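User: Before I run my own analysis I want an independent prediction to cross-check against. Here's the chain; please return only the structure tokens and, at the end, one sentence I can use as a sanity check.
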Amino acid sequence: MKLKKIAALTAAAAMAISMAVTVSAETVTIDDEYPGQWVSSGAGIKKADLEAVGGDVKIVLDVEVYDKFGLADQYLVHPIDYDNGWASRSSEEYNYEHPDTITSDTLTVKRDGWICVNKNDTQLEFVYSADDIANLGDDGLCFSCCNVIVHSATYEKADAKQATLQWVGDQEGKDYCFADLDAAAPAEEEAVEEVVEEAPAEEVVEEAAPAEEVVEEAAPAAEPAPVATTTSTATGNAPAMAVVAVMAVAAAAAVVTKRK
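Assistant: Structure tokens:
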């Protein structure tokens, strides 16, 4: 019984921990189609829903650049207070008066508050402060667009604020929209490949090859040994030595015979 109670308590504790660390994220649909140039459909995250999160809110927008006629000169999204004259929540001026209303580690924003969307972007992430939620109208935080469709917004409680926005000028923002942001990574890879190709590993091996040639040239030095034997055979010295040895043995035998 005790083991069963321990097992039950352990399971309950694990469930409690799981429930405690589960983060609930909500997603709302913004626009299925392009709402038009420099306009907002009025769809967004309601003030009551933002307040229900309790604290700073992390928001991730699912976006798609829209350039039906190939004439777009920039791609922009603007977080606004729809009920209060479409007031910007990401402009340099508003954030100067209300510090860190919106913070982000990744966004590039024009000074008037329009977020620049790169041609390859599919998401925009930022943190909206709890202090500013109270200033919104009931329709909450909405999004005005220019050549961009905001399909949906996913929001949840933020662990912490992100970086203070770094605002840019109009032309710099336009350049960002069409920049090849991933170009730097392949360049580094090519550099590494070039270093590997230029490494003289194979050349060193090829240069070391002459050592074998030296061995081959030195090989004839081992031939003199057979020369002495050949010369000895040609001059008859070896048979003469054999005759002398036979005669010596015969002489010794004769001496022994005489003594007997």
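Sanity check: Residues 237-259 form the longest helix (23 residues).
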